[in-house]
Structures are given as structure tokens and as C-alpha cells.
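FAQ: What does the model actually see?

It sees only this:
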Amino acid sequence: MSTTPEHDERIAKLIFASVYPHYVTKVEKKGRTKEELHEVIQWLTGYSEKDIENKIAEKVKFKDFFEKATINPNAELIKGVICGYRIEEIQTPLTKQTRYLDKLVDELAKGRKMEKILRG
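And it is asked to produce this:
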């Protein structure tokens, strides 16, 4: 299933700080930690702990969040279905990067080992 321009635009306008608490809740409910969540975000984006905190405080949109990120070259190894979309078939880079993050958070919450999540 391919994304629509409206779907891509909706993701671009989402504020990272509004989604972040849901990520934290999801992983903590399954026995993982906020620190592990940050490790996953740092691996994908290249952001430091301070960068992540600043992005939350500045209430940046996903568009800006990923525009300034240095996406890990191994992110292309993230495959599968998330939110009804097959990641490897998504054409819009921003939507694909957002789904990468969703998939990593999902894997963390499901108890996958960190070295597998980080494609190590």
C-alpha cells in the first residue's frame, strides 16, 4: 500500500513532542526504558541526548526533526509492516524515516534484543 500526499503531509506536520510521550509509554509498559528509547532514536538520527531534549522542548515538526538528522546508513535494513504500510515500499523519504522510527520503537516494545534493533 502506498501513502497518499495527504498522509505524507499529515506526518510532516506532526510535532515530535506530541508523539514522544506515546513512544515512552509504549516501551515502558513492556518493561523497556526511556534510555533504551533514546538509544534507538540516537542510532537512527545521529542526535545526542541533548539534541533529543531540545527537539522536544522546541516542539519541532517531524519534517524538521528528520531534515536535520543524519540517518544511519543501516536504516535501510529496517523492513516490515508498520501502521499498515510496508516500509520498503514507501516512496516519500520523510514518511519512510518516520516509519523507521515507529518500527524501531515497536521492536523495542516487543522485547527484541538491542543489537538486533540497531541492526548490528
